[in-house]
Amino acid sequence: MLNKAILMGRLTRDPELRYTPNGNVPVVTFTLAVDRNYSGNGRERQTDFIDIVAWRRQAEFVSQWFTKGMMAIVVGSIQSRRWQDKNGNNRTSIEVVADEIQFGETKKSRESNMGYQGGYQDSYSPAPQQAPAARPVPSFDMPAGGSDFSEISDDDGEVPF
User: Fold this and answer.
1) How do beta strands 47-55 and 5-11 pair?
2) 8 to 53, 62, 148: CA distances (angstroms)
3) Do 33 and 12 form a contact (C-beta atoms < 8 A)?
4) Are 92 and 85 in contact (CB under 8 A)?
5) pTM, whole model, 2 decimals?
6) What is the full DSSP assignment across 70-101?
7) Alpha helices of 5-125 — where are they, by DSSP H?
8) 17 within 8 A of 25, measured Cβ to Cβ
9) Are 31 and 49 in contact (CB under 8 A)?
10) One digit per residue, pLDDT tens: the chain, 161 residues?
11) Are 127 and 113 in contact (CB under 8 A)?
12) What are the backbone angles phi and psi of residue 71, rounded to the nearest 5°?
């Protein structure tokens, strides 16, 4: 079976670091705002809000270095959890348990991002990207004569496997 989620989005709030009841295993939770790749005709792009959970060293890393509004890349697995609320109603939560969490942008680009002030913004749009400068294409011309390579004859057109 395969259960792998790869997400890139902005934190909607500061990560919340807690510890397990015995007090020795850190766990952090946060929500990632992820834009969908498509939008309907003339409609705004929709955003999904995905709950993320990270444990141990990942939890400490996120708690120390990530804040509301920062772009993060999360790789993990989707997990469902059933529980009862205060009124005894059965509830289900879907969340991503993070295996890897990385910065989604550099500090320099985050600070110069068109007046971006460090908080989640519904109307965030990234700064326009400049096309990379054209590089010269390397030449792979074979030297005339004296090559150790020869063309393979296509005797019957069949693939040998």
Assistant:
1) unpaired
2) 15, 15, 49
3) yes
4) no
5) 0.65
6) -EEEEEEEEEEEEEE-TTS-EEEEEEEEEEEE
7) 56-65, 107-111
8) no
9) yes
10) 899 999 999 999 999 999 999 889 999 999 999 998 876 777 788 899 999 999 999 999 999 999 999 999 999 999 999 989 999 999 999 999 999 999 998 877 777 664 444 443 333 334 444 555 555 555 445 555 555 555 556 566 665 55
11) yes
12) -85, 130
Q: How many CB atoms lie within 10 A of CB 73?
A: 15
Instruction: Give the torsion through C-alpha atoms of 42, 122, 50, 85, to 10 deg.
Output: -110
| Number of other residues whose CB lies within 10 A of the CB of residue 97 | 17
Measuring CA to CA, which residue among 37, 19, 36 is closest to residue 28?
Answer: 19
pLDDT, one tens digit per residue, over 126-160 is 444 455 555 555 544 555 555 555 555 656 666 55
